[in-house]
Amino acid sequence: MKVAQINNTDYRYKTSFKGIIRTVWRKTPSPNGVHLIDTIKHKNNSWMFRPNVRECIRQYNAFSKLFPGTEKVNVYDCACSLGYGVYGFLLWLLSGHEKHPERFFPIIAKDYDEDIIKAAREGLLPLNEDEIWNICDVVRKDDVIKKEDLDEFFHVDYNNSENMLIGTKCYGYMAKPTKILTDKVQFSVADIREDYVNIEPHRSLVWATNFWPYMGKEDRYKLAQNLYNQFAKGSAIKISDDFDNNRICLQDSKSTAELLLDTGFHPADGIKNIFVK
Ligand SMILES: C[S@@+](CC[C@H](N)C(=O)[O-])C[C@H]1O[C@@H](n2cnc3c(N)ncnc32)[C@H](O)[C@@H]1O
After folding, report:
1. With 0-12 CB in 10 A as exposed, 13-18 as middle and 19+ as buried, what is 154?
2. Whether the CB of 214 sits within 6 Å of ligand 1
3. Which of 75, 211, 237, 245 to mutate to test the pocket of ligand 1 (most atoms within 8 A of CB)?
4. 253: domain CATH number?
5. Is the per-residue pLDDT at 35 higher than 60?
6. What pLDDT, on a 0 to 100 scale, did the predictor assign at position 126?
7. Bridge partners (DSSP) listed for residue 77
8. Whether pLDDT at 176 is above 60
9. CB 177 within 8 A of CB 200
10. How far is ligand 1, taken at its centre, from the CA of residue 26, in Å?
């Protein structure tokens, strides 16, 4: 699968695992002004039910309890890549686990990378075998996990597999989300560093996962503060463990969890990586 070139000559990219999932590099002048070195601007890598399906289900249950009742909940994914996070949550909502799934619709999914949003709107998700079985597990109608249960949500071309993984062999398929899913998500381009002002303060749930280290220390601090100020009491933010709290990626500054706590958020009762104002 091809991704459109980034036109700006300051950037270059290489495709990686899952084909469309890219690493975008920014050329940076060296201190002596002569050579150009490359730094990672961002990666679009993502997958369904990250970090794992059990943890995701625990979190989805928690969202339901954080916002009890039937009133509308405003859900945003502010660095959505191809929309794996959004689709994972929708699959759970639409499979009988939540009493009033419609209160979470539509989900507003944004990313500042125009190419990835274009691809998200076209709607072709690379899925590996594990992701496919995890989806079947979440959407299953009885005790048996069957591939047919997935058909309502994705058209998968099983005849066209790709060997996608570096290292151990793993086969992947292209999956087209059906209208049941795509009707409930709105993709658009935005940089959360400016776009936080468009978050509805009340009853909002903001997914902000696996992108904080790309922003740099100053922007991370500013964004945490701006989100806190934008939120009304009770709105919540979800981050991730694997990248957002990784001290090596954060170059030894505070983890995103610590940053949110310093800003005034408090941890949601018993649920890792969810913080509430
Ligand atoms: C590693 S992916 C993570 C995708 C998804 N949130 C997840 O957890 O799997 C990082 C994404 O963040 C996006 N991103 C980075 N900085 C951003 C910003 N300031 N505003 C919006 N999107 C951003 C990138 O374009 C990329 O698609």
Report:
1. buried
2. yes
3. 211
4. 3.40.50.150
5. no
6. 84
7. 109, 207
8. yes
9. no
10. 15
What are the backbone angles phi and psi of residue 129, rounded to the nearest 5°? -55, -45
How many other CB atoms are there within 10 angstroms of residue 65's CB atom? Answer: 11
In sequence order, the β-bridge partners of residue 14 are 23
Cβ(252)–Cβ(210) below 8 Å: no
243 CA closest ligand 1 atom index? 1
User: Could you tell me if 189 and 216 lie in one domain?
Assistant: yes
CA-to-CA dists, residue 132 to 64, 83, 126, angstroms: 24, 15, 10
| Closest protein CA for atom 2 of ligand 1 | 44
Average pLDDT of the chain is 87
142 CA to middle of ligand 1, Å?
Answer: 35
Question: Residue 4's pLDDT is what?
Answer: 46
Q: How far is CA 230 from CA 113, 237, 254, in A?
A: 23, 12, 22
**Same domain, yes or no: 27 and 109:** no
d(CA 139, CA 152): 10
Indicate if ligand 1 lies below 6 Å from the C-beta of 111. Answer: yes
What predicted TM-score, i.e. pTM, was given to this entire model?
A: 0.91
> For 105-124, what is each residue's pLDDT tens digit?
999 999 999 888 998 999 98
How does DSSP classify residue 199?
A: S
State the closest ligand 1 atom to the C-alpha of 223, by its place in the atom list counted from 1: 19
Say yes or no: CB of residue 79 within 6 Å of ligand 1: yes
Quick one: 23 and 77 in the same domain?
no
Under 8 Å between Cβ of 22 and 3: yes
Q: Tell me if 85 CB under 6 Å of ligand 1.
A: yes
CB 196 within 8 A of CB 227: yes
Task: Determine, yes or no, domain membership for 208.
Answer: yes
Q: Which of 112, 198, 215 to mutate to test the pocket of ligand 1 (most atoms within 8 A of CB)?
A: 112
